[in-house]
């Protein structure tokens, strides 16, 4: 079971016990700001104890601002292993969005949307018991969730038959190729909203398909995507239109092409050349 997203602020150092085993495909996401006078910030995945050196570190990740490096390592049996290093493209005073995703043979580490390292497992990631943030930073957001999504992936809306007004879908997506799409589906199989980023055209195509026939395309608006760069995407069912927000910026509006948008969207489907890291959809409060 993953933890729902929470906004802080949280005290640093911050340590929390994982309430269930870390599963393949899950991501730990941490957001905040680096202190203006920062020397270092570290993230630890621990087992056996809630702090070093009593614990073992399945993953130790450290931002070192004095020499501009990210250092990754593991600590087992009282001994540090061999360091792995990357350049740190983050400065004191910057905002950070750190995501550590557990995959079958490695952790994928992303910083502000960019993959910075694949760290091969030295200890099974399922043995993780705590995660921790220490050092010269603030911590304003913590989230732990996700899974491996095999595309095409289709789902209805949990515990409800449709997508009511105010419903949001939040997803974290990493484009891998020239195009991918997210479709809202009707009960009869029509595509009531087709959202299709196309890298070869630098456009996001919006449309609908009813009785096998496509409607008029809409293409206006910016194209904020880069291949291999992660983006937070929010899609909101408003009373008169669908709103699309990418990384906090509204990039498009699609006027409903159905009579009852609070009842007619019964599920959604994702397909194409994209890696979906996390999907969260919640009933409006």
UniProtKB/TrEMBL annotation:
Q: Its domain of life? A: Eukaryota
Q: Give residue ranges for domain Galectin.
A: 14-145, 155-282
Organism of provenance:
Mesorhabditis spiculigera
Report what the protein is called: Galectin
Matching entries from Gene3D superfamilies are given as: 2.60.120.200
Spell out the SMART domains in the cross-references.
Gal-bind_lectin, GLECT
Q: Name one GO molecular function term.
A: carbohydrate binding
- Entries under CDD domains matching the protein: GLECT
Record-linked InterPro entries: ConA-like_dom_sf, Galectin-like, Galectin_CRD
Q: Which UniProt keywords apply?
A: Lectin
Q: Which Pfam families match?
A: Gal-bind_lectin
């Amino acid at each position: 079971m993953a933890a729902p997203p929470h906004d802080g602020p949280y005290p640093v150092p911050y340590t929390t016990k994982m309430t269930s085993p870390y599963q393949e495909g899950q991501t730990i996401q941490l957001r905040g700001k680096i202190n203006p006078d920062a020397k270092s910030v570290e993230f630890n995945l621990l087992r056996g104890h809630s702090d070093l050196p009593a614990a073992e570190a399945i993953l130790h990740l450290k931002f070192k601002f004095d020499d501009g490096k990210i250092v990754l390592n593991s600590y087992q049996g009282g001994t540090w292993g061999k360091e792995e290093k990357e350049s740190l493209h983050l400065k004191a005073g910057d905002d950070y969005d750190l995501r550590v995703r557990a995959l079958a043979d490695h952790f994928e580490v992303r910083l502000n949307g960019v993959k910075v390292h694949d760290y091969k497992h030295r200890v099974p990631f399922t043995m993780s018991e705590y995660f921790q943030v220490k050092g010269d930073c603030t911590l304003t957001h913590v989230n732990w969730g996700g899974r491996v999504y095999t595309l095409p992936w289709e789902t209805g809306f949990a515990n409800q038959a449709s997508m009511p007004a105010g419903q949001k879908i939040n997803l974290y997506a990493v484009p891998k190729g020239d195009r991918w799409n997210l479709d809202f589906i009707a009960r009869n199989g029509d595509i009531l909203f087709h959202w299709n980023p196309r890298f070869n055209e630098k456009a996001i195509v919006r449309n609908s398909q009813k009785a096998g026939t496509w409607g008029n395309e809409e293409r206006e608006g910016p194209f904020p995507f880069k291949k291999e760069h992660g983006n937070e995407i929010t899609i909101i069912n408003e009373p008169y239109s669908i709103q699309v927000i990418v990384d906090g910026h509204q990039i498009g509006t699609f006027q409903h092409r159905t009579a009852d948008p609070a009842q007619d969207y019964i599920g959604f489907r994702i397909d194409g050349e994209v890696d979906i890291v996390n999907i969260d959809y919640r009933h409006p409060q």
